[in-house]
Design goal:
The complex is a heterodimer. Chain A is mainly alpha-helical. Chain A is 37% helix and 7% strand. Among the domains of chain A are: 32-98, Orthogonal Bundle (3-methyladenine DNA Glycosylase II, Chain A, domain 3), CATH 1.10.15; 102-164, Alpha-Beta Plaits. In chain A, strands 1-4 form a two-stranded antiparallel sheet. In chain A, strands 2-3 form a two-stranded antiparallel ribbon. Chain B is α/β, with parallel strands linked by helices. Among the domains of chain B are: 122-293, Rossmann fold (3-Layer(aba) Sandwich); 386-446, no CATH class. In chain B, the strands form four sheets. In chain B, strands 1-14-13-17-15-16 form a six-stranded mixed sheet, sandwiched between helices. A four-stranded antiparallel sheet of chain B has the order 2-8-7-4, with no helix packed on it. Chain B has a four-stranded parallel sheet with strand order 11-10-9-12, with helices on both faces. Classes of the chains: A mainly alpha, B alpha/beta. Chains A and B meet through helix 6 of A and helix 14 of B.
Chain lengths: 191, 571
């Protein structure tokens, strides 16, 4: 009897020590799931999800405080990727995120810009160049199309221009007469 | 009769799959190559190659000469563009270009003056055997030469494999495996000497152990002509090898497999296994550039199909509209169904024949409904596996199809989507008429776009992080400044209080002490009866003036001391 108790107690102690040791030895800084979620988000830092940037949204998703369907720039593709990563069911896109907008970049009408720097302060990725009372301009390559510079402009001289499709970024379309099985299945459902 | 030329002792190998297609080449090989007349207007795209677009160097209205550089290469993987004939630059603008998207691209539009006047060409490097390979490479680069087999990869990059790569085998691609296309065939028949000269230059540059010219055995005339030229050149290690006709043996990796038995690793270039492959047209262009100084401004184009009256091959200036070539071939027949740039297997439909011929354009196929039949609606895949049986890269087309259709791009890449050469064998044999290659092309471009977006997102994330860090730092600095100011303010009243405790302000005290000293000194002097020192040794005039002033003052005031007067005079 005593031997059994001692044996179990020794084992418990040994495993306890092992667990304690490994929790210190193999300690992981930060939450890797947040990084993984953050990596899937489009990093526009637009705040359309209601969080001040992509990382806060990632943290919120990781904590289970927010749903995965609130990222309009990422659209459905991001939502599905998040669902895959987190092992949850895909959900329809939420509110304004449901309408997919074409990718666009901000353009400042340089004739009308008064050089107030308000847009520079609003840009989350420092993609606007300019100084007080000097004309501002958007660095097109760095602009994420978040539209955060639009509301602060006092003269409304910023507008969004959809990205031009040229031969360098043109994509072959998804074959259109191409999903017979899906069409058939759809027909069957409707019948 | 051609049997003798087709015999070769070399052991050949097979690649997986492939198709025996009706070659349809005889239609366009009946007549010798004709020189297409100079069109009134040439549209020269600035991006005719893989890599960065060339940067225009001319302005609208400028007169250009034939062979003049009109756009320079931007970056290492790029190629310059030259004026195909003399004339005036009418425009530098977006114009329809031959591209599957049907989109426009930046072009230099030249109105020809029909004089075809050459610019002063660079010196021919006829004695290149003694010259530096770097000089040769530079000449080839400056001549705008790109791979003429269809991919249009800048040749100057391919002939510079780097010091650690030793090219053991140089392969010259004369296979021309796609049906209908005969421009390489005609080039080999009519200008074997130029090709051999180009090969000699390539041999000098790459120093290969052996050179294999692979030609499909359905081109006996070309094989004969090339053999003859090779024999008369006396080059050692050069062999013209007839290979069995099997589509797509003209694919770079397939030809390498057939001739050497080696397989190029997935995702690698042939240089990795010591092989470089050039098209026969490219070799001829290299010879022109080095031995005559001529840049690449024209190429051979096959115009064929039941959709034109007289199929033939033409030597065409780059920038000639496709429409002009159709007219040269006797215009469209009533059978025309669609105009294809390239062959029936790998080409794409040109929706507008105003698009110009580029360096990569080898064939205009005016196809009848019978030659390029509409596959009809796709039906469900029956999993017959024929696609996998014919795939020359030994892929699993069906698996890739499922995943591409489900837009699961990651999975398509696991099945080596990027090793697909888009030869079209799988779609050709598919009994369900599924446009398989279209799925792969969609998946490829979509994957690239996603990869690019990922990189952009990564960059945006970094920029955002840096910005947040900067804002935090600025805020911390501002706080620190505020704190310092507050501390300074808090210190000052404390200092005042300590002075008050001592008695008075140090400044005030100093002034008071000085005044006290002055008063004491004065008192001492008056006590001793000493007058101020500066009243002695005065001239009579000065004394008179003083006396005068004294009397004046005495008249107005009576109670003023003498010392005071002198002091005021001094002041």
């Amino acid at each position: 009897m005593i031997i059994a108790i001692l044996a179990i107690a020794t084992l418990a102690l040994a495993f306890g020590l092992l667990l304690g040791f490994s929790s210190i030895r193999f300690h992981v800084e930060g939450d890797p799931i947040v990084d993984k979620i953050d990596a899937l988000l489009p990093q526009t830092q637009c705040g359309q999800c209601g969080h001040p940037g992509c990382r806060p949204y990632a943290e919120s998703i990781a904590n289970g405080e927010d749903s995965i369907n609130k990222c309009p720039p990422g659209g459905e593709a991001t939502m599905i990727a998040l669902a895959d990563l987190l092992g949850v069911d895909p959900v329809p896109m939420d509110g304004e995120a449901a309408v997919e907008k074409p990718k666009a970049v901000a353009v400042i009408d340089e004739q009308e810009c008064i050089g107030c720097t308000l847009c520079i302060q609003a840009c989350p990725v420092d993609a606007i160049l300019g100084a007080a009372k000097q004309m501002h301009t958007v660095i097109g390559n760095e602009c994420t199309g978040c539209e955060l510079c639009l509301p602060p402009c006092p003269v409304e001289c910023i507008h969004m221009e959809p990205l031009k499709v040229d031969t360098s970024n043109w994509k072959w379309p998804f074959p259109n007469n191409a999903s017979p099985e899906l069409v058939n299945a759809g027909d069957a459902r409707h019948a | 009769m051609h049997k003798a030329t087709s015999v070769s002792n070399r052991k050949l190998f097979h690649f997986h799959g492939g198709l025996h297609l009706p070659d349809n080449k005889s239609q366009s090989t009946g007549d010798p190559v004709r020189k297409a007349p100079i069109p009134a207007r040439l549209i020269v795209p600035l991006q005719q190659h893989i890599g960065e677009i060339a940067e225009p160097l001319v302005t609208v209205g400028e007169r250009v000469l034939k062979g003049q550089l009109i756009a320079r290469a931007q970056g290492y993987i790029s190629a310059p563009v030259h004026a195909p004939t003399s004339g005036t630059v009418a425009d530098i603008a977006e114009h329809l270009i031959p591209h599957p998207s049907g989109l426009t691209g930046l072009c230099v539009v030249i109105d020809s003056d029909c004089r075809d006047e050459w610019i002063d060409l660079p010196e021919p490097l006829t004695s290149y055997h003694n010259s530096d390979p770097a000089e040769l490479r530079e000449r080839i680069r400056q001549s705008g030469i790109v791979g003429l087999g269809g991919a249009a990869f800048p040749t100057s990059v391919k002939i510079n494999p780097g010091p650690e790569t030793w090219i053991k085998t140089l392969i010259i691609n004369g296979a021309e495996c796609e049906p209908y296309i005969t421009c390489d065939d005609m080039l080999m028949r009519e200008h074997p000497q130029r090709i051999i000269s180009g090969i000699e230059i390539l041999m000098h540059l790459l120093k290969p152990e052996r050179v294999l010219v692979g030609i499909e055995d359905n081109k006996p005339e070309a094989i004969g002509a090339m053999r003859e030229a090779a024999a008369s050149s006396g080059l050692t290690g050069l062999e013209v090898v007839p290979i069995p006709t099997l589509y797509p043996s003209g694919g770079e990796k397939q030809l390498i497999r057939v001739l050497t038995g080696k397989e190029v690793p997935s995702g690698a270039i042939p240089a990795k296994i010591g092989i470089v492959c050039h098209n026969v047209g490219t070799a001829a262009a290299i010879a022109d550039a080095v031995l005559e100084g001529k840049p690449l401004i024209s190429r051979l184009v096959t115009v064929t199909g039941e959709g034109v009256k007289t199929p033939a091959n033409f030597e065409v200036l780059i920038g000639t509209p496709a429409r002009n070539l159709i007219e040269l071939a006797g215009d469209y027949t009533s059978k025309i169904s669609k105009l294809i740039l390239g062959g029936p297997m790998m080409g794409f439909t040109l929706n507008d024949d105003a698009a110009p011929i580029t360096k990569a354009a080898n064939c205009l196929l005016a196809a009848s409904g019978h030659e390029a039949p509409d596959p009809g609606p796709a039906t469900p895949c029956i999993r017959c596996g024929q696609c996998a049986a014919v795939c020359p890269v030994n892929l699993l087309p069906q698996q890739m199809y499922w995943y591409a259709r489900a837009k699961d791009l990651e999975k398509t890449q696991e099945y080596h989507l990027f090793d697909c050469i888009e030869c079209g064998c799988c779609s050709h044999v598919c009994p369900a008429h599924i446009p398989l290659v279209q799925y792969y092309r969609y998946a490829k471009t979509e994957s690239w776009a996603q990869e690019q977006e990922k990189q952009k997102a990564e960059q945006a994330r970094k920029r955002h992080e840096v910005r947040v860090a900067r804002l935090e730092r600025l805020e911390a600095e501002r706080q620190a400044k505020l704190r310092m100011k507050k501390e300074a303010l808090a210190k000052k009243p404390a200092a005042k209080k300590s002075n008050d405790a001592d008695g008075a302000d140090p400044k005030k005290a100093a002034i008071e002490a000085a005044m006290k000293r002055a008063a004491e000194k004065k008192a001492k002097l008056t006590e001793q009866g000493v007058a101020p020192q500066n009243t002695e040794n005065l001239t009579p005039a000065q004394q008179a003036k003083i006396d005068q002033a004294e009397t004046r003052r005495k008249a107005s005031h009576s109670a003023t001391t003498v010392t005071d007067t002198t002091e005021s005079q001094d002041g």
